[in-house]
Design brief:
26% of the residues lie in helices and 34% in strands. The longest helix has 13 residues. By secondary structure, it is of the alpha+beta class. It has a six-stranded antiparallel β-sheet, with helices on one face. Strands 12-11-10-7-14-15 form a six-stranded antiparallel β-sheet, covered by helices on one side. It contains nine helices and 16 strands. It starts with a strand and ends with a strand.
Length: 294
């Protein structure tokens, strides 16, 4: 039987380039003996993927940023595909690729497909048993900044587009009250942003605290500061201290139930916008995804 590689390609992701990314990926896979079934990540993707027959799929490849990797993971899990995921980073931040040690250049990342048996199983987060995430989610001010960063800014400056938007924006910092429940305890916290990480690595920049893709735990932070300056201070606390004491509430668990009494009705997951209700459940699926690694 012909072995098939399912490719999910986001042509609009990443920095502007003259490289024929699609051609590079297709040629590499054909050299390795795969039949290539390629899907563009656009408005027609959901309809097209629903109609696809996954019989014979031995490899899934995500070509894009963290949002594309998330869609590829969803495709694997929802369709029970017994195949590893190859990540070809072509996005603005490429947090997943950086965290897994995958080269951030297309040609170097493609070389990993020579050994599809070299894999690791990683955790995935899920919201309301429906929406997957690999990097994390955020609610509040930080979420608004990320979700409102224009695509052309990301395409021109990559992850620095988010930084530009973060510094030069007119979004007002305001606090909301979060009710956070774990399996055993309930916490009430006022803050401007709630963030849950499953992974974090921006070009080698990590938090002082170890955020591990394979520990079965999600790491929650609430930023309690009131001004942009104190928010920047809080971010530096995360970079240099294991347990930040100022401007930040932290909690580690495999399950959270979050209640929003007012204010935000949306969040961002792996860079994508998502509308949410006033009550959401967030949990981890341990070792749920097999990924090709160096």
């Amino acid at each position: 039987m012909t072995k098939i590689a399912l490719v999910i390609f986001n042509k609009s992701a990443g920095l502007t380039t003259k490289q024929d990314i699609e051609g590079l990926v297709r040629n590499k896979l054909e050299e390795l003996g795969y039949q290539v079934d390629l899907f563009y990540l656009n408005d027609n993707f959901e309809t097209a993927i629903l109609e696809h027959n996954f019989l014979g799929t031995e490899l899934v490849v995500a070509v894009g940023g963290d949002g594309t990797v998330k869609v590829a993971a969803k495709t694997i899990l929802n369709n029970q595909i017994s195949a590893p995921l190859g990540i070809i980073p072509f996005g603005s931040a490429n947090v997943m690729a950086a965290d897994l040690g995958i080269p951030l250049t297309v040609k170097q990342a493609l070389k990993l497909l020579d050994q599809p048996e070299k894999t690791a199983k990683i955790d995935i987060g899920i919201i309301n048993k429906n929406h997957y995430f690999l990097v994390g989610l955020s609610i509040g001010y930080i979420s608004h900044v990320i979700a409102s960063t224009p695509g052309d800014l990301k395409n021109k400056f990559g992850s620095f587009g988010y930084l530009w938007r973060f510094i030069f924006n007119k979004i007002k910092i305001r606090k909301i009250k979060f009710k956070i429940k774990t399996q055993n305890k309930t916490f009430w916290v006022k803050g401007n942003s709630l963030v849950i990480f499953n992974a974090i690595n921006y070009f080698g920049l990590k938090l002082k605290k170890n955020i591990d893709l394979k520990d079965g735990i999600l790491n929650l932070y609430v930023f309690t500061d009131k001004t942009l300056l104190s928010l920047i201070s809080a971010l530096f606390y995360l970079l240099w201290r294991q347990q930040p004491k100022k401007y930040i509430f932290t909690l580690d668990d495999d399950y959270f139930k979050i209640y929003l009494n007012r204010g935000w009705n949306s969040c961002q997951i792996d860079g994508d916008y998502l509308k949410i209700s006033k009550e959401i459940e967030v949990e981890v699926l341990p070792m749920a995804l097999e990924v090709i690694i160096p």
